[in-house]
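sorry for the late reply, my laptop died twice this morning and i had to redo everyting from scratch. anyway the thing you sent over, i finally got around to it. pasting the sequence first so we're on the same page, its 222 residues, then the predicted structure underneath. double check i copied it right bc i was rushing
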Amino acid sequence: MYNNFITNIFKKTMRNYKELIKSFTEEDYKSGLVNLHIHTNYSDGKGDFAKFIKDSGKFKAISISDHNTIQGYSENEINDNVIPAVEFDVWCGYIFMHLLAYGIDFKSEELKPFLAKSKKETEMDIVRIFAKRDIKKLITAIHNAGGIAVIAHPACCWAFSLDRFFKKLKSLGLDGAEVYYPYSRHRGVIKFHTVEAVKKFAQKYDLIMTGGTDLHTEKLFN
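ok and here's the structure:
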């Protein structure tokens, strides 16, 4: 339904994913027409990557952002309304966080050192929390791979000051923040900041505001 719409946008932007993502509205995310945070069985999700791609035509745009791996993109063809992505586990000082990389060239050699070396690094929290990625080098690699770096579910980040945290990330090259996120299940329990604060500081530091459901189920639709 939305394939022609997205194809035209891609042609106009010459696959400038940054401008495409900037064009999405709050209503796009809240209505579910755009979902930029989806996991499959290539990491800790239950859904089939290829089936999600097949079903993606009912969306304006989706991103499958498996943890620390782009294997799904290497092994499957994708539609024009699918924005390549990966979600990295990384530390920023004393704060553990997830960094979404959108619009990346998944064949980039510079990204390879940051990718998982085993399946456990894509699905087990106890393994992923010991990530040793250098956040500054990671953001640089994302940019050099043609992508943008977006902090995932920032209200869950244990930062004493969200303002200072965003300021530091911006200085490291952060492009965006996941503002339209449901904070359901355990994310709602470990939330340290309000969604309103996330939006406030995303605007203050001129960050692209993205959104997604962090889907881990077998079906792409509710």
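The chain has one domain: 3-211.
thats about all i looked at so far, will dig more tmrw
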